[in-house]
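Forum > Structural Biology > Help requests

Title: Can anyone predict the 3D structure of RNA helicase?

Hi all, first post here. I have the sequence for RNA helicase but no way to get a structure on my laptop. I'd be grateful if someone could post the C-alpha cells.
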Amino acid sequence: MASDSWAFSVDQQEATNKTSEVLWIRDRRVILNTEAKETAKPPDGDKSDEEEKEDRAAQSLLNKLIRNSLVNNTNQVEVLQRDPNSPLYSVKTFEELRLKPQLLQGVYGMGFNRPSKIQETALPMMLAEPPQNLIAQSQSGTGKTAAFVLAMLSHINSANKWTQCLCISPTYELALQTGKVVEQMGKFYPEVKLAYAIRGNRIEGGSTIQEQVVIGTPGTMSDWLTKKKLIDPKKIRVFVLDEADVLIAMQGHQDQSIRIQRKLPKDCQMLLFSATFEDSVWQFAERIVPDPNIIRLKREEETLDTIKQYYVHCRSKQDKFDALCNIYGAITIAQAMIFCHTRKTAAWLTKTMSAEGHQVALLSGELAVEQRAAIIQRFREGKEKVLITTNVCSRGIDVEQVSVVINFDLPLDKDGNPDNETYLHRIGRTGRFGKRGLAINMVDSEQSMAVLKAIEEHFNKKIVKLDTEDLDEIEKIAH
Ligand SMILES: Nc1ncnc2c1ncn2[C@@H]1O[C@H](COP(=O)(O)OP(=O)(O)OP(=O)(O)O)[C@@H](O)[C@H]1O
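Reply #1:
Sure, ran it for you. C-alpha cells for RNA helicase below:
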C-alpha cells in the first residue's frame, strides 16, 4: 500500500550531530540516531512452553476480538486511515508492530483496528532492542497515549514484582486518564499492576512496591522515589514524560522531572511526548532525553483538518451568550467544552446557561483535585452536556463525544499575548481520533480580533467568519 511514499531521503545539512541524520518520511521530518539505528534489532523471540501456550490461547481470543472490532468501528476512522494526508493513516497493522499477544488483545478489545501514524512510526523505535529514546510530537487525539502505554507494557517483565516503568503526567486528571488506558490495554495481561503516584494516594514508605507501572505527577513521584523509597530508580527501564508542553508550563514540574530523570540508569529508555514544541519545550526535551529519535510535525500540520475553525463577531459578553444560544438553537451538539479567561466569567456563564435549561458543569482551578476528577468523570459519562472551564485542568482531557469547542474568550498568556499552544490544546478537545469537530471563537474587541489573526497566522490555517444570526449558515457548518 503506497509504499513509494515512504521513501526515506537523507538531509545531511540538517544533521544535528555526527550520529544523527535527518530523514523526511513522506513530508515529515524525522531525525534518526544512526548509531542507535544500526544496533537496533527486533525484540527477542525466545519463549518458554508456558509462554507459547499462553500465546496460543491469547491468539484465539484475539481473532474473536478482531472480528468484533472490525464490525464495530466507525467508517470515518477507516476512511481516514486510508488517506495518506491524515494523521491516522497507517501502512501497517498492529500485528506487524510485533506486540505481545496479550497487548494485541487489549488493543483490539479497545476497538482499535489499525495504528495511527504516530503509533506506527513511534512503536518500532520504542520497541527496538536495545531501547531507543524518543521525542515525539503528534496532533491532539491521534493516539500518543495509546502508543507509549503499549511501549511501557511491552517492556515489562511481569515475573519481576517491582516498578519498571514510570510515567509522569502534568496533572492529577491526566494521570488517572492515562492509568485507565493502561488498565484497558493491559486487560489481558493481569500480571501487570499499576499504581498512581498522585496527591492523596497515601502509601506508607519503607519498602518498595510491587506494581510494575507507576503513573503520577512529578512532585509525588519524586517523593516516592527519594523520600519514601517506594521505587528503586535503578530498576526503571522506561521513563515517559507525557504532555511535556503542559508539564513545563506548571511551576516546579520541570525541575522535579529532571531530578527524577537523573536518578534513573543510563540505559533506561526515555520517551517524551507533546502536542506542541515551542523553544522552551525543545530545550527541556533535549536536556532530559539523551540521543533521541525525533518525530516532529510541521507548523501547518499541528492543527487537524477534521476540526473546522470559525469565529463570531460580538459586541459584549451578553452578545457572546446570545451567539452561543443561537448556535445551540441551530445545531445538535453532543457535548461541548467552553473556555473562559477568568473564573468569574466561567461562573457567570455556568449560571446563565443553567438558567436557560442546559446541563452544565463548571470545572475550575479552585476545586480540589478529587472534585475536578469527579466532574470530568460525570462529563465523560454524558451526565452533563456542557463543560465550562478556565484553562488549567482541562488540558489533555479525552472525551470522545465533544463535538464543539467554544472559546468564549481567546487564550492569552500571562503577558496578555496570544497563546497559540493553549489554543491548540483547547481545540484539540474535539475531533478526537478522526471525529469531526467544530471550534468556534468569540471575538468582541479589536484586541481579541488581533489575537485571532495572530493565531490564524501562526498555524497558517484560515479561521472563517460565522454569522450566528443566520441559522442556515450555522446549520451548514455542522455538516
Ligand atoms: N489506533 C487507534 N484506533 C482507534 N482509536 C484509537 C487508536 N489509538 C487511539 N485511539 C483513541 O483515540 C482517542 C485519542 O487517543 P489518545 O488519547 O491516545 O491521543 P493523544 O494523542 O494522546 O491525545 P492528546 O494530545 O490530546 O493527549 C482515544 O479515545 C483513544 O482510545
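Confidence is low (pLDDT under 50) at residues 1-45, 61-74. Residues 49-72 form the longest helix (24 residues).
Shout if anything looks off.
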